[in-house]
Amino acid sequence: MSRRALIAGAGIGGLITAIALARIGFDVAIFERAERLDEVGAGLQLTPNATRVLDRLGLLPAIEPRATAPRAIRIFRSRDGAELARLPLKARERWGAPYLALLRADLQSALAEQVAAEPRIKLALGVEVAGCGQDAASASVGLTRGAIRLAERGDVLIGADGLKSAIRERLGLGGREAARFSGRVAFRATIAAKDAPAWCAEPDVSLHLGAKAHLVHYPVAGGAKINIVAVIEAGWRERPGEDPWDGEADRAALDAAFARWSKDAHALLGAAAAWRAWPLRLRPPLPAVAIGRIALVGDAAHPMLPFLAQGAGQAIEDAGVLAESLAGAEDVAQALASYSRRRAPRVARVQMESEAQARLYHMAGPLALARDFGMRALGPERLLSRYEWLYAA
Ligand SMILES: Cc1cc2nc3c(=O)[nH]c(=O)nc-3n(C[C@H](O)[C@H](O)[C@H](O)COP(=O)(O)OP(=O)(O)OC[C@H]3O[C@@H](n4cnc5c(N)ncnc54)[C@H](O)[C@@H]3O)c2cc1C
Question: Which helix (H) or strand (E) holds 357?
Answer without folding.
Answer: helix 332-361
